[in-house]
Amino acid sequence: MAESRKPSPPIASRNCDDPQIDYKEVAYLLKFLTPQAQIVSRKRSGFCTQCQRELKQAIKRARHLGLMPFVQ
């Protein structure tokens, strides 16, 4: 039988009352990228839907400004 993998814990548990995610906080945003520089899923990040959208937008802005890599 195939073994089921244990779900990995969320990277950050964030309350929606927290301040918005800023694209200039590169060290914080790098936690939400895989080794291939893909954005992690909402289940893995632990964000609500709206916060995940903010995260995605912040990462995209940082990439276009050259603060973060598109691929590694």
Give structural notes.
The protein has helices spanning 26-30, 42-45, 49-64. The protein has 3 helices and no strands. The mean pLDDT is 86. It is flat and about 45 Å long. The longest helix is centred in the last third of the chain and has 16 residues, at 49-64. Helix content is 35%, strand content 0%. It is an all-alpha fold. It has a domain at 35-72.
Question: Helicity level, as a percent range?
Answer: 25-40%
Unreliable stretches: none
Give the beta-strand count: 0
Q: Bin the strand percentage.
A: under 5%
Q: Strand pairing plus helix content: what structural class? A: mainly alpha
Largest sheet: none
H and E string: HHH
Overall average pLDDT:
86
**Rg, nearest Å:** 13 Å
Name a few traits of the molecule.
72 residues; mainly alpha; 3 helices; flat
